[in-house]
Amino acid sequence: MNRSQSCDGYITPGSEDLPTFTSVTPHPRSSRCRKIVHVSTASPRFYYSPTFNYAQERAFKMVADIKRTVLLVTEQRNIDKPPEMTGYPMKSWNIEVFLLDDAGNEQPASCFVKVVYNLHPSFKNPIQTFAKPPFRCENEGWGEFDMTIDLYTTEKAKHTIHHDLNFAKTKYEAKHLITFKNPSAALVELLRDTGSIPGEGVENGQRKKDVEKKRKRTAGTVDMEKLADGLVKLAEDDLLQVVQMIHDNKSDETYTKNDVDQGEFHVDLYTLPDTLVKMLWDFVVKQQTGA
User: Fold this and answer.
1) Is the pLDDT score of 158 beyond 60?
2) Distance CA 159, CA 212 (A)
3) Burial zone of 163 (CB within 10 Å; 0-12 exposed, 13-18 middle, 19+ buried)
4) What ranges does the record give for the region Disordered, renumbered to this chain (predicted)?
């Protein structure tokens, strides 16, 4: 296909490095489609996509696969209830779900929207769902058994791990390494709280410090939230100019990602040089006012 030929809602004339973009049509069920902006706790990032809609979370595709260690903490104790099976005392047991950060410390598993425990079928309620960390599952019984636990990052996307419920110790831990494939921007931000993100090249804590320094340098002259909001409202031709301006004036510290296959361009505004931030701000104001 010729580089200037239309393809999946966008064309790429001229430069091999720069995608072009069409307007975005909001999906009636999601206000997220109106503004392709993700503002993280660390920094605003704006994303352009020619085909973004409710079903295409890929517009937020940012990084490679991310690995995290899930920690299951199980506790059990004897309780004063008549045994249901001779020779087997009644037990009260509970399981909680955590993530381990880079230092091996327990962190809330906030990246999961819900956790489903699939217990032994002899339980009256063998499928138990919890929607808030630490996703504590607590029950009573006399027997040990194997179970599966489903960890959901969305209503449909899940990771399934196996767990051995046993009474050998009053408390024990089990670790499971899982991989988040093609995580959305929102999921990346949640995972950032528990460790480094592949491809960023900077340890999480240091990155936050650098961002805060950048905030202080730019906060007095440019409102970065308004800049991000203004950028995604620009017309298609204006967006091309923005991408070209960033391409021509970025520094070595600037974070950008151009995914030609997906028709996406990502940039972290807080990694732009101050002169470029001011340049983009002036450009947005000019287009808004027509001056």
Assistant:
1) yes
2) 34
3) middle
4) 1-26, 198-217
**Residue 53 in this model has a pLDDT that exceeds 70:** no
Tokens of 222: 């440019």
Enumerate residues 6+ apart whose C-beta is below 8 A from 56.
49
The separation between CA 288 and the C-alpha centre of its own chain, rounded to angstroms, equals 32
* DSSP summary character for residue 65: -
Q: Under DSSP, is residue 85 helix (H, G, I), strand (E, B) or coil? A: strand
* Site of tokens 């029950």: 139
**CATH homologous superfamily for 66-180?**
YEATS domain (2.60.40.1970)
pLDDT at position 170: 97
Q: How many residues does the chain have?
A: 291
Question: Strands (DSSP E) along 156-243, which ranges?
Answer: 158-165, 171-180
pTM for the structure as a whole: 0.53
CA dihedral 133, 124, 158, 53 (to 10 degrees): -90
- Is 171 strand, coil or helix? strand
Q: Where are the domains of the chain?
A: 31-64+183-289, 66-180
Q: Packing angle between helix 274-289 and helix 224-231, nearest 10 degrees?
A: 60
CB of 7 closer than 8 Å to CB of 1: yes
Structure tokens at 95: 């399981």
